[in-house]
Design brief:
Elements: E1 2-3, E2 9-14, E3 17-21, E4 29-31, H1 38-45, E5 53-54
Parallel strand pairs: 4-5
Antiparallel strand pairs: 1-4, 2-3
Length: 57
C-alpha cells in the first residue's frame, strides 16, 4: 500500500530534541495493490491514522 503524502515531518533541533510538523491540510489517502485490498489495509492502520481515507485510484 502507499499513501498520498507523508502525514508529518520531523526536524532535529539539537541532539535529543526534535520538532514535529503536521501541516497536512488536504487529507491523507491510501491505496493498495490490488485495489480490492485498500479497505483491508485501512482497517490495519485505523488506530494510528484515524482520518486516513481510501484513494480513488
Amino acid at each position: 500500500a502507499e499513501t498520498s503524502t507523508l502525514p508529518y515531518a520531523v526536524r532535529l533541533l539539537e541532539p535529543g530534541k526534535i520538532r514535529i510538523f503536521n501541516k497536512l491540510k488536504g487529507g491523507l489517502f491510501l491505496a493498495a495493490v490490488p485495489a480490492k485490498n485498500t479497505n483491508y489495509v485501512l482497517e490495519q492502520v485505523r488506530d494510528v491514522y484515524p482520518t486516513m481515507s481510501a484513494a480513488k485510484n
